[in-house]
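testing teh design pipeline on a random one, pls ignore if ur not involved
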C-alpha cells in the first residue's frame, strides 16, 4: 500500500476486516478470499462504468474518454500515469485483473466512490481519503433510530425491569418475588413505565447521535486510530452525556417500581420536597460506573462477535442472526456490570433526606449479604438487557439501514419520475 501511495489507515482497515480475531496480527488465504468475495461484485460494477473497449479492456484512448466524462484533466501524461500505476505497459491495455488488484486494497466505503476519481487521484497525486463531513441529517437519523429502538424495547421489557428493581431494593430473592407476582399484578409491573420510556428515548437518542458524530470527528482528527479505539472513545463520550439526561427519569422510575410513590406527579413532588433538586441525581456515580463499561464493552463485544460470526458462517448475517448476536452481547455485558446496578438501585431507593454514597452502599451489601449480594437480580437483568441489547445494538443498526434504504429508494423514485418512468410507489 505504501508502494501505491495509499494512506496507512487503509492497511489497518484491510487487516481489521481480514484477521480472524481482535488480537491477530496476520490473516490467511481463507480470510483474504472471504473479503475478496465480498468486494468483487462492487469492483466489477465499478469497472463496467468505465469506457471499456469491445474486448473489455482499457487502452489509453478509453482512459482519456473516461477522464473527460468524469470532468477530470484528460491529458496524455495523466492517462500514461494511470496505466503505469496499475503496472501496465503504456502501449498495452488495462485488464480487469489490473483494476481489481488495486481496488481490493481500498476500504469498502471508498469502493462506492467514482472509480475514475479514485484511480486518477492515486496515480497523479498522493492519495488522501476525502474529509469526512458530519451531516446533521445523518446524526439526527442515528439519534432517531437509537431512541426509537430503545423506547420500544423498554416498553416491552419494563415488567422484567420492575422485577429486577424489586429484588435489588429488598431482601427478597428472585423465586420469592415470582411467587408474589399475582399480588403485584400487571399494573404493578408497569409502574414507572412513562419516565422509563421517556428517559430511554431521550438519552439513547442523544447517545447514538453523539456516538456517530464522535466517530466521524475521530476519523478526521486521528485517521490512524484502530477501529476498536474509535468505537471505545466514541462510546465513552456519548454514554456519559446520554446518561446524564436519563438519571432524573431513572430516579423517578425506580422509586415508582419500588412502591415508594404511587404516580409520577407524587414522585416528582415527593423527591423535590425531601431531597431537593439534587435528589433527582442520586446514584449518578453508580449509574455512570454501570453505563460506561456496559456500552463501551457491549458495543466492542457486539462488533467483534458479529465479525467472528460472519467469518464462521462465511457470509453476511441475516437480520435475525444480527439480533441474536446483539442480545447475547448485551446480556453478557449486563451480568458483568450488575454490581454497579445493585448499588445504583439501593442509592436511588434509599430513604429520602439521608445522605448516601457508593462506598456506604457497597460496604453495607458486603457486610449483610456477602459478595453475592452485589449480583442480586443478575438473572432478571440478563433477560431484561438481552432484548434491550438486541434493540440497542442490532436494532439500531438495522433501523438505520432501513432508513438509508428507504431514503435511497425515494431518491431513485424521484430520478425515475423526472425521466417519466414508473416508480416503485
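output:
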Amino acid at each position: 500500500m505504501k508502494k501505491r501511495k495509499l494512506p496507512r489507515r487503509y492497511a489497518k482497515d484491510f487487516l481489521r476486516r481480514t484477521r480472524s480475531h481482535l488480537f491477530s496480527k496476520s490473516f490467511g488465504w481463507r480470510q483474504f478470499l472471504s473479503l475478496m468475495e465480498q468486494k468483487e461484485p462492487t469492483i466489477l460494477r465499478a469497472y463496467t462504468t468505465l469506457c471499456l473497449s469491445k474486448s473489455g479492456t482499457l487502452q489509453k484512448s478509453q482512459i482519456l474518454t473516461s477522464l473527460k466524462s468524469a470532468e477530470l484533466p484528460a491529458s496524455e501524461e495523466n492517462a500514461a500515469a494511470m496505466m503505469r500505476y496499475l503496472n501496465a505497459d503504456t502501449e498495452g491495455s488495462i485488464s480487469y485483473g489490473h483494476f481489481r488488484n488495486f481496488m481490493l486494497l481500498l476500504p469498502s466505503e471508498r469502493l462506492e466512490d467514482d472509480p475514475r476519481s479514485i484511480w486518477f487521484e492515486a496515480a497523479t497525486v498522493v492519495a488522501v481519503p476525502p474529509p469526512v463531513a458530519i451531516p446533521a441529517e445523518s446524526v439526527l437519523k442515528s439519534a432517531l433510530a437509537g431512541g426509537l429502538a430503545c423506547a420500544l424495547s423498554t416498553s416491552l421489557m419494563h415488567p422484567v425491569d420492575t422485577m429486577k428493581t424489586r429484588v435489588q431494593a429488598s431482601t427478597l430473592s428472585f423465586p420469592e418475588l415470582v411467587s408474589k407476582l399475582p399480588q403485584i399484578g400487571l399494573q404493578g409491573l408497569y409502574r414507572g413505565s412513562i419516565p422509563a420510556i421517556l428517559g430511554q428515548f431521550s438519552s439513547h437518542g442523544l447517545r447514538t447521535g453523539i456516538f456517530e458524530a464522535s466517530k466521524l470527528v475521530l476519523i478526521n482528527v486521528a485517521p490512524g486510530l484502530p477501529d476498536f479505539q474509535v468505537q471505545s472513545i466514541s462510546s465513552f463520550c456519548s454514554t456519559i452525556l446520554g446518561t446524564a439526561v436519563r438519571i432524573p427519569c431513572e430516579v423517578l422510575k425506580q422509586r415508582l417500581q419500588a412502591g415508594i410513590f404511587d404516580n409520577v406527579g407524587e414522585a416528582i413532588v415527593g423527591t423535590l420536597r425531601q431531597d431537593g433538586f439534587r435528589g433527582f441525581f442520586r446514584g449518578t456515580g453508580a449509574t455512570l460506573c454501570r453505563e460506561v463499561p456496559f456500552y463501551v464493552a457491549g458495543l466492542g463485544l457486539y462488533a467483534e462477535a458479529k465479525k467472528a460470526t460472519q467469518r464462521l458462517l462465511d457470509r453476511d448475517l441475516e437480520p435475525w442472526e444480527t439480533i441474536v448476536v446483539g442480545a447475547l452481547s448485551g446480556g453478557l455485558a449486563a451480568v458483568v456490570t450488575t454490581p454497579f446496578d445493585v448499588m445504583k438501585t439501593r442509592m436511588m431507593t434509599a430513604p429520602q433526606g439521608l445522605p448516601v454514597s457508593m462506598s456506604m452502599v457497597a460496604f453495607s451489601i458486603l457486610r449483610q449479604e456477602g459478595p453475592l449480594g452485589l449480583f442480586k437480580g443478575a438473572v432478571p437483568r440478563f433477560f431484561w438487557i438481552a432484548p434491550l441489547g438486541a434493540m440497542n445494538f442490532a436494532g439500531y443498526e438495522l433501523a438505520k439501514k432501513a432508513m438509508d434504504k428507504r431514503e435511497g429508494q425515494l431518491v431513485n423514485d424521484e430520478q425515475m419520475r423526472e425521466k417519466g418512468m414508473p416508480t416503485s410507489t
